[in-house]
Specification:
This protein is α/β, with parallel strands linked by helices and 409 residues long. The protein is built from ten helices and 14 strands. A seven-stranded mixed beta sheet has the order 7-6-8-9-10-13-14, covered by helices on one side. Helix 6 links the parallel strand 6 and strand 7. Helix 2 packs parallel to helix 9, helix 5 packs across helix 6 and helix 9 packs across helix 10. The radius of gyration is 27 Å and the shape is globular. The protein starts with a helix and ends in a 26-residue tail after the last strand.
């Protein structure tokens, strides 16, 4: 009797090799199709006004890449997900000078294809490009300017703000001081416009939360060299005199965004009192020592990439780029109209290492976010404070609320 086993084995081996070859051909075709699939490029512009600046302390001089470093970390985060979806995120940085005309530079960015632009420029510079951006379908993310006017009378529907406002910062600070029962304040403010705007925000916060500004004093900038040896000696003598004969008070509030005198107030006042505002206890969107709510994760990634600690502007830029990354991923698109619609949806939110997801206020497109209060070493507290309630979100106790808003979109 003739065995059929050899013929059967031949047939099975033939079938196996046919299957393997077919699988390899299919895999090669799939790989070729994947390679031929076009990559969706999401170009993100970054327009910043930069000039080297001095500070009262060399430790407070801003890093050369402040803000940009945060955006770059977020670009890497976006590309980690994007490579699986055929998306590629790139950052296009353009620099200009303070108070320069930014319109030509911005038009060049638009001509290069930037339809999403982060801005770290002054309020007046931002307003000069806002309408041109709107007319050309460009979405702007303000990561630097804290002016309330940009969210109020000068608001625009195509501008999203990840930087907090001065009123949000002042309210965050005020809530903590009131929670501490430090309700009697002395306000020392500088002579520059930015100082006056911050002082206005402090006055509003005091009125809003029941604090009492018992006296105000203006510190005129006379342009003296206070970082010299003789300057420091003069400051040690001048600050006690400047703060002498004040009414009874609990805390000294400093409004000195221009870095003229504020850093010299702590430990030099006539009456020993805590100092807050732009010196001492400072309100900000982020702190280099923040480690709660997974903060150590982003801090470590940032330090590995930038070789320094993460600052507020870095976090504000990181948040803006991550918002765009989340929108591009969810919509699988780089179309500005689809991205805008996704961000403006009622259910949009983003995890930002602050204990709760951040969202946008749909009446002025300001990002709701907790405000961190810290000194030079660590985070002291986070606002909104316990007991400050709101019918919609406790985060809306920080800054100008919907009923107060002057924004007409």
């Amino acid at each position: 009797m003739k065995s059929v086993v050899p013929n059967t084995l031949v047939f099975l081996f033939g079938l196996f090799f046919t299957y393997v070859n077919a699988f390899e051909v299919q895999a090669q075709q799939s790989s070729t199709e994947k390679a031929q699939k076009p990559v969706v490029d999401i170009r993100i512009g970054y327009l910043r006004a930069y000039e080297p600046q001095l500070a009262l302390s060399v430790l407070d001089i801003s890093p050369r890449d402040e803000g940009v470093a945060g955006a770059n970390v977020a670009i890497n985060d976006n590309n980690t997900t994007g490579r699986f979806l055929g998306q590629s995120f790139t950052l296009d940085v353009t620099e200009t000078k303070f108070d320069a005309d930014v319109v030509p530079a911005f038009k060049e960015m638009v001509a290069r294809g930037d339809r999403f632009v982060l801005t770290d420029i002054s309020a007046s510079q931002l307003m000069s490009i806002a309408d041109f951006a709107r007319d050309n379908g460009v979405l702007i993310f303000n990561v630097g300017a804290t002016d309330d006017s940009l969210r109020e009378e000068n608001c625009r529907s195509n501008i999203f703000h990840t930087a907090p406002t001065r009123s949000m910062l002042a309210d965050g600070l005020a809530q903590y001081l009131v929670w501490k029962q430090w309700r009697k304040w002395v306000l020392l403010y500088g002579s520059h416009e930015r100082d006056r705007l911050y002082a206005d925000a402090i006055r509003r916060a005091a009125n809003r939360f029941g604090a009492d500004i018992v006296e105000e004093r203006l510190y005129e900038d006379r342009g003296t060299a206070r970082r010299t040896d003789s300057g420091v000696i003069q400051v040690q003598k001048q600050m006690p005199v400047f703060t002498q004969n004040l009414p009874e008070h609990d805390v000294v509030i400093v409004a000195d965004e221009s870095e003229v005198f504020g850093s010299y107030v702590p430990y030099r006042t006539w009456t020993p009192r805590p100092v807050a505002g732009t010196a001492g206890l400072i309100a900000s969107s982020w702190h280099p020592a923040s480690e709660q709510w997974g903060g150590s994760q982003i801090q470590n990634r940032f330090f590995k990439a930038a070789k320094r600690r993460m600052l507020s502007k870095d976090m504000q830029a990181w948040t803006a780029v991550r918002i765009l990354g989340e929108a591009a991923t969810r919509t699988n698109s780089n179309d500005p109209a689809k991205i805008e619609a996704f961000i403006k949806a009622d259910d949009f939110s983003l995890a930002a290492f602050k204990g709760q997801k951040v969202t946008f206020r749909n009446w002025n497109w300001q990002l709701r976010q907790p405000i961190l209060l810290g000194d030079g070493r660590g985070v002291v507290s986070t606002s909104p404070q316990e007991g400050f309630l709101h019918q919609h979100s406790e985060l809306d106790t920080l800054g100008i609320d919907r009923p107060e808003s002057k924004c007409k979109l």
